[in-house]
Prior knowledge:
Layout: E1 48-51, E2 54-57, E3 71-79, E4 83-87, E5 94-97, H1 109-112, E6 118-125, E7 133-136, H2 137-155, E8 158-167, E9 170-174, E10 178-182, E11 201-210, E12 215-219, H3 220-238, E13 244-253, E14 256-260, E15 265-269, E16 290-299, E17 304-308, H4 316-323, E18 329-338, E19 341-347, E20 350-355, E21 376-385, E22 390-394, H5 410-422, E23 426-429, E24 450-453, H6 469-475, H7 480-485, H8 500-512, H9 517-521
Amino acid sequence: MTTxxxxxxxxxVEAAAPAAPVAEIDLDAPVIDLDxxxxxxxxxxxxxxxxxxxxxxxxxxxxxxxxxxxVVSGRVVxxxxxxxxxxxxxxxxxxxxxxxxxxxxxxxxxxxxxLGEWVDALVMQKEDPDGRLILSKKRARFEKAWKRIEAAxxxxxxxxxxxxxxxxxxxxxxxxxxxxxxxxLVDIRRVQDLDEFLGRKLECKVIELNxxxxxxxxxxRAVLEDERRExxxxxxxxxxxxxxxxxxxxxxxEFGAFVDLDGIDGLIHISELSWSHVNHPSEVLAIxxxxxxxxxxxxxxxxxxxxxxxxxxxxxxxxxxxxxxxNDVVEGRVTKVVTFGAFVEIHAxxxxxxxxxxxxxxxxxxxxxxxxxxxxxxxxxxxIDADRRRLSLSLKRVADxxxxxxxxxxxxxxxxxxxxxxxxxxxxxxxxxxxxxxEGEEGGEYAEGEEYAEGVASDEPEADAPVAEEPVAEEAxAEEPVAEEAxAEEAxAEEAxEAEEPAAEAAPEADEAPEDxxxxxx
Length: 522
């Protein structure tokens, strides 16, 4: 009885069980053959051969021919806790040590193979010191998987693997080799909890291969983006500027908020969030919140969508134009103090500017001498520029007897009270002047042009502090008549305190200056 010897890597086991090679990357169902009486392989040649004139069994024909590094196939005949025995038709069973069963860590042999299962294994040693044939299932699977991964990467195809570990920075997938999926490439958006992917099968794209280091880097994000590309293009084709659409806030950053429009993100810039001033987008929106937004602009080439939230809300400027008139006296809240004046909110979402020249009838060096953030005050409307959406206000043109025509809403009043409480006790001290404490309050001299809290001053002001002299001395250089009266060596007024003799000579002039009202006001 003779028969052809099959290929060692794919033995013919039709008589015993349906032939099927052990899995590729996606690990097909294993072939199980529990008929251990059936030989693993058949003879390669005649059953008997003639030797020295006698007919003897053809023993050599029963042994497979292979070398170390070859991949052979066999049937699992025994499973122990630290090794698995495989019959490949050799003179003795091959041994697969536990570490050579799988790329997974801390596995049980019974979880990797079944009794009677046909497996592929790589020959590591034909004969170890104990005479055993040493095999490796994971290395055979590695070789086959690596070829499949290389082919998939070259063709731009996707591969599929099961998440077997969560490591620092990403996930480990079982592809037959250990594939690394960085956390930033697990999804289109950053995933906070990677543990939810443990045990799941993921379809990924190979983005890096290094055979020398056995390194495979994957991207699931690329797969998801490929799937969504057509969806995004359809959304871009359907969207038109001026449309109002519904979306979900997907992310909040310093400069605005991103909105998921069922497959593509649009940006609401911070300036388009509200008609009123917004310090941070989180003041207005929260991640996961559903919003209606207006499409402002579409860059189809770069696939970018600009959105507006305030455009879906009533424009407060219309109320101002319809209800407010020039010369109206209105109640307002100081929202911001700058060097050139103060911004005052007179209506929800509408602020006007009180220029520094309109803060008080007298000369004002710094707006904080007159107002502070959060102050409630009455101002007069002196100009309404509807085209430029600008409002000019005046504080000095309001008399105590003037009636307020428009009051602030209760919510803005509450915000003003909160700001006032936050700034309670802060006192602005003009340059060169000493702080004059109220009755029962400790006082002292402060540095120039700063804010100080009450009760921090020293017990007594310095005796030689020139309270009224220094402001005039600083203003003197700005006026030509004063500059002409000063001696040549005293020309820079700021240098006077540095030299002892010039300071003594200049003192009488400074003492006389406050008596001249015209010079002081100038």
